[in-house]
Design goal:
With 101 residues, the protein is of the alpha+beta class. It has one domain: YaeB-like fold (2-Layer Sandwich), CATH 3.30.2310. It is 34% helix and 27% strand.
């Protein structure tokens, strides 16, 4: 039996951060490195359509309902909220491990 799939939505803020990450790698590494990072993060985002509630809670001082969760890809955390009633996952940010929350 195939499990339930959730709709994954990327907020404007998160999309802007992803473009910034892509630009950073293009400028400081190479277009090939930028493509690898962009595609890797996109693949991880798509994986959130399956079992998003299995991902760990984001340790933060902010209280939110539903709580923030994250998925890890390399040195990045993909921050999202999981809305069970709407069957939706909302990606709200991409954070590098060296950034403060």
């Amino acid at each position: 039996m195939v499990g339930k799939l959730f709709k994954v939505v990327i907020t404007r803020k998160a999309l802007k951060r992803l473009v910034g990450i892509d630009d950073y790698y293009k400028k400081n590494a190479s277009p090939a490195a930028a493509r690898k990072v962009r595609e890797g993060l996109a693949k991880e985002v798509r994986s959130l359509e399956k079992l998003p509630e299995s991902k760990p809670l984001l340790p933060t001082k902010k209280k939110a309902n539903p709580p923030y969760r994250y998925s890890k890809k390399w040195s990045f955390r993909i921050v999202f909220q999981f809305f069970k009633k709407e069957d939706t996952v909302s990606v709200v940010d991409f954070l590098h491990d060296k950034e403060k929350q």
